[in-house]
Amino acid sequence: MSKTIRIGTRDSELALWQANIVKKLLEEAGHQTELVPVKSTGDLVLDKPLYELGITGIFTRTLDIAMLNHDIDIAVHSLKDVPTVLPNGIVQAAVLKRGNVNDTLVFKDNEEFLGAKEAVIATGSLRRRAQWLNRFPTHTITDLRGNVNSRLQKLKDNNWNGAIFAAAGIGRIGLRPEEAINLDWMIPAPAQGAIMITALEEDEFVKTACAELNHEETEICTTIEREFLNKLEGGCTAPIGALAYIKDEEINFKGVLLSPDGTKKIDVTRVKKLGEHHDMAQYCADFIIERGGKRLMDKIKNSDRKTNVFSTKKLTEDQRLLFHEKVIAESSDFIKININRIHPRFLKNEIQNVIITSKNAVESLTTNYSASELQFKNIYCVGRRTKRLIENKIGKVKHAEKNAKKLAEYLVEYMEGTETTYFCSDLRLDDLPTILSENHIKVTEVEAYSTKYDGVKIDDSVEGVMFYSPSTVESFVKSNHDEVIAFCIGETTAKEAKKHFNDVRVAKVPTVESVIELVNEYYI
After folding, report:
1. Does the annotation mark 81 as catalytic?
2. Which residues does the UniProt record annotate as the domain Tetrapyrrole biosynthesis uroporphyrinogen III synthase (predicted)?
3. Is 223 a domain residue?
4. Domain stops at, among 283, 301, 319
């Protein structure tokens, strides 16, 4: 006589309904069964939204432990609740034919609130919350937890306009009210509407019994959706939707990743012939990642981690990706640049010696005049990137140094003539003109651009600040007084930082990337 298959399930009404379906199908196939209800953490903790519990697989973990302890032989789950990576020793034994995949809005009285500016919608799902706010940004979302019955009761008892449910869930236990509509615009959770059976990998008898219940089309589609979720490294803490379906021998897929507040949305659609779909999930996940998905996922993952490094210059996406995993960085431009009008009298004749110490001065010159109008015989500059920009837009650079002081010392020794024109900011440092004047070199200063302080108050959690010029240091200390580690782009910036901070560190080369490397070295 074959053994009795013990079916583990949560003890909610919906979970028991699903388990009884499996029990019925197994018994129709000639197997003896027994239900074993188990209470899960997800059912016990109802005072916080699910995504705040920070546990992937909250509804499956208790059943996993029971199975590994050989207290049950199989477990029945809503597949959307199952982590994309199963515990060692546990495998997917079958997926039943899928039910309704949609989310459903249950509302009171009528649907007129959908066109109103203000409305209150209840859901405990971060994915539903994000998609609703993306579509209705002025509405308010309130948290809703508990089993289907208790959630429907809370909707009746509270002054809410509606609540969102899985259509399959309220339909299976016969609780779908007349006042309900499917939200066909809302992309469901990966594998929503599907029932999954797990078993021990070593239990061949049970795996063979369950294989008879497997629905191949549902298995193909839910596997794609769950692989897409896995590639994005998402779980119940990320607003990710995915739906695959088969029509006319083709697999149609649509997926979405949103910010928790719904303000950002990245979506993807793809169609492949059945049998040629094996790279579909990877392609769609890469599509999302390459269009800002990685940054969005990182922000979601780090939402509970405080910023520990602040850049006083806005960082590009590529620069942000260079940080060590222990660094949570924010950035803002602490200085604003205004290009000044340069009077033609400064440029009416060829200038023998020109000094340019920043890319901003280059931008000012080339905004005011064409390259042919900039008749400079000898150009001297500070910084490799400034040199590169000058040679791309104006002409050949005769000599470059890492900072203004070293350039001044070079000019005292090697400059032709005794006069030079210095295109600078209204906040330029004194080193260069002072050294040149002391050595009887006349300096004509032209304010090519003006610098405005635009610093913000940083959080108390910030330990280190990245500085790129003396002006960024000055702007920072006007808005902030806390002692921080100063990560500086060069010696000139470090000189100013040392007036205010005890721990000042200087990058190996004067680039933003080198400052990031300096930060990473500190956090290793």
Report:
1. yes
2. 345-516
3. yes
4. 301
